[in-house]
Fold this protein.
Amino acid sequence: MRAIEQVTFGGPEVLHLVEADRPEPGPGEVLVRVHAAGVNPTDYWHRATGGLLGRPVRLGWDVSGVVEATGVGVALHRPGDAVFGMPRLPHEAGSYAEYLTAPARHLAPKPAELSHAEAAGLGLAGLTAWQALVDVADVQPGQRVLVHAAAGGVGHLAVQLAKAKGAYVIGTARPANHEFLRGLGADELVDHTTADFAAELSDVDIVVDTIGGEYGPRSLRTLREGGIVVSLASPAEAALAEPAAAEGKRARFMLVEPDQAGLRALSDLVAAGQLRVALDAVLPLEEAAKAHELGQAGRTRGKIVLTVAD
C-alpha cells in the first residue's frame, strides 16, 4: 500500500510517500480502506518531535473510509460499511495511508450527509469540541461561550456545537472570517488583530482556548464567577487551574480521547442540519508535506484533508 512515512523528525520536508505492507486487523479491530485523512495540529507536533510515536513515524488520526475486513470478535462493523473516526490517539493510527487498522469501537458509521473528505475532517476536531463543551464544561442553554480561533478546525465546529446547545456564541477571528462565522451561528465576533478580547468581554461562562500561551490568563479575565476555561493547546496550561481557583473560577487542560458515543452524537447533529464541516483545502496523499505547510501558516478556515482512495 502507499503510505506517508518519516524516519527523522523535522519540518514538512521529512514526510515521504513510500510503499508499505498492508496491516492485518487483530482481535476487536477492523481493517479500513482509507478514502480520506484529516490533517491536524497534533500531526505537526508529532512530525517535529516524535511525540509518543516510534520510528518510522506514521502520522494521521482522522479517517474516513470503508471497512475491508474485521478481526475476531467484531460485531459492530462489517466489510463494506462506511465509517469515520479518530482511532488510537495519542498512539499511532497512521491514517496517512491506503489502509489502517483500528479498534472497532474507535469508529462509527459515516454520516450519509457527508462526503468522505468532510467526514475525515470531523473526527478529531469534532470530538475535541464535543468533549470540551459537553463533557468538561457541561454547556447549558443561555450560557455565554467564547471560542478562540473560531474559524479554525476545532473552532468552527465548537461554534456550531455551542449554538446547537442553545448558547450565546462569541468568537475571536480575523475580519475576513467574520461573515463565515456568522453563517455558522456566531452571535458576536472580536477582531483579535486590533482589539483586546479580555478588555471587551465579560460575564463569559465557558472559554474554549485552542491557542494557549497568554490566551489562557487573559481568558480568565473574561469569566464570570464559576466560569471555566478549557485549554486544548499545551499541558503547561494545567498550571492555570490554581490562579483560576483563587478567583472562584475553573481551568482544565484536556486531551481528546477516542469516543464512539461522541462520534455518534456528532453524526446526529450533522443529520439534523446543525453541524457541517468546512474544508479549507483538499489535497492528494502525496502532497502531505504541502498540507502541513498550509496548516502551519495559521490561516486555515475549517479543515485540511488528504484524499487517499476514490
About this structure: The mean pLDDT is 96. The first strand starts at residue 2 and ends at 5.
